[in-house]
Write a structure and sequence with these properties.
binds 2-acetamido-2-deoxy-1-O-phosphono-alpha-D-glucopyranose; binds magnesium ion; three-stranded antiparallel sheet; single chain; Aminoglycoside 3'-phosphotransferase, Chain: A, domain 2; six-stranded antiparallel sheet; alpha+beta
Amino acid sequence: MTPAKIAEQFDVAGRLASIRPTGSGNVNDTYLAVFRTHFSEERIIVQRVNGHVFAQPEWIMENMSILTNHCHKQLQVESETADRIWQLPRIVPCRNGQDFFKDGDGGFWRALTLIASAKSYDVAQNAEHAFEVGTVLGQFHRLVSTMNPLSLRDTLPGFHETPKYLEKYDAVVKSAEAQELIKSSLEVRNLQRFVEARREFAHVLQNALDGGELNLRLIHGDPKISNIMIDNDTGKGTAIIDLDTAKPGLIHYDFGDALRSLCNREGEETSDIGQVAFDLDLCESFVRGYIGQARGFLTENDKKYLYDSIRLITFELGLRFFQDYLAGNVYFRVKSPEQNLQRAQIQFRLCESIETRRRQIKEVLELAIIGG
Ligand code: GN1
Ligand code: MG
């Protein structure tokens, strides 16, 4: 079935006027569909969920429904005193009443409302933007902090548990295909060494969880800069999108993920690896925005692990790209066979920059926590 035919399965008024690919996601296929009536139009997001990544796509819809119902109710309660209109996408049901549509070829499709008059960016625009990205993530964490983490299913077991990615990596490295790549490339061997030097560190957050210092909460799972919507008119953050990876986990992975994607001014796909560095000014603005929302629910132990979370998620994403490269690019969408290798190099370079700036980042964190 064509995307147009799929879009018509969803319960939207009017006739489909156009449908085109949108977004920069690495996993799902995303389209923007425009429906017109004789007096107006409605725009929705239509997505095919990657069945290779999400083994139980029904569960992500169940999670999304529970999560957005909670948040929409809470936003309603707070709307009188809020300084802006906060938004969160809502599921657009199918004409048959279900929250998703299955095509004849095993494709799993769903539709979501489009956040109005807002856009997201792949790279940071300025300090105000960074502050808003922090504010949006903090607001999301605050909203879900009153939910029972176990009210959502774990749709992606092992997702954001760094030691699990090490296990996967170790298994892949042993394969004949990976051995071939390792033998033939000095760069691959350099990345291997990079991983080996951080093997112990990879356990830092899971150890803190196992030791009772950190607790499971609800996390977004993918709060990178391009998933934060900024209002076109006011420049303020208005929504966080891409709720597929919301699940019980450590909010530290979210905190780190937003920062690693925001503070690399070159972006995740740059060809200029030499320019990749962690920007302290953007970090400072983000943390002020985040703490402004998160002060009420962050514990002393939470605060202790904020620096590690930035370093760890950057290492983890690099490791995931590298592992996928060695496995023959089976997880992340690629335009060339070397793209995952380049992505890994970028994240590892960023990780090194985070390590070099450890003292300054810790200072920024401490000042924001005391001051904001
Ligand atoms: C993937 O598909 P996208 O772009 O929303 C990935 C994230 C990574 C991100 C890096 C389910 O997200 O974990 O951080 O790429 N999502 C999944 O750009 O693996
Ligand atoms: Mg995502």
